[in-house]
Q: What sequence folds into this?
């Protein structure tokens, strides 16, 4: 397994995220349980910026689960929505913020962005047309 969720949150989540909507803001607390203790991570989201701190203060959305689940979010690209449906995590509060978490955690290792796939397909189509590959 690669980095733990705690390492990922501490090193990679904070800062600017251009794929976050500019008009969405809120606070998210991640409660990561491990062997009877709970680590609290507090995310402040606004203007495509994410602030990360260690705090148990109230948040617009609280997501709780075991360390192993959060580690899978990082290492395997598990979708946070799928983890919620499987009851691997619980969420209380503004569930619209839950989908923002998907943009903060890495996707599956073999995933490609749909825009990149579409651009590659258009480029391949244009290349085949320019080399006489047009249909008649």
A:
């Amino acid at each position: 397994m690669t980095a733990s969720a705690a390492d990922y949150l501490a090193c990679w989540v904070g800062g600017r995220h251009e794929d976050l909507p500019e008009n969405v803001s809120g606070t998210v607390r991640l409660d990561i349980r491990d062997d009877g203790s709970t680590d609290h991570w507090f995310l402040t989201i606004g203007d495509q910026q994410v602030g990360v701190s260690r705090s148990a203060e109230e948040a617009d959305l609280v997501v709780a689960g075991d360390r192993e689940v959060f580690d899978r979010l990082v290492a395997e690209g598990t979708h946070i929505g799928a983890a919620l449906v499987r009851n691997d995590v619980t969420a209380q509060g503004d569930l619209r913020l839950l989908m923002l978490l998907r943009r903060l955690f890495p996707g599956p290792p073999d995933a490609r962005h749909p825009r990149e796939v579409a651009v590659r397909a258009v480029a391949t189509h244009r290349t085949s047309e320019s080399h006489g590959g047009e249909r008649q």
Notes: Strands lie at 15-16, 26-34, 37-46, 49-53, 61-66, 89-93.
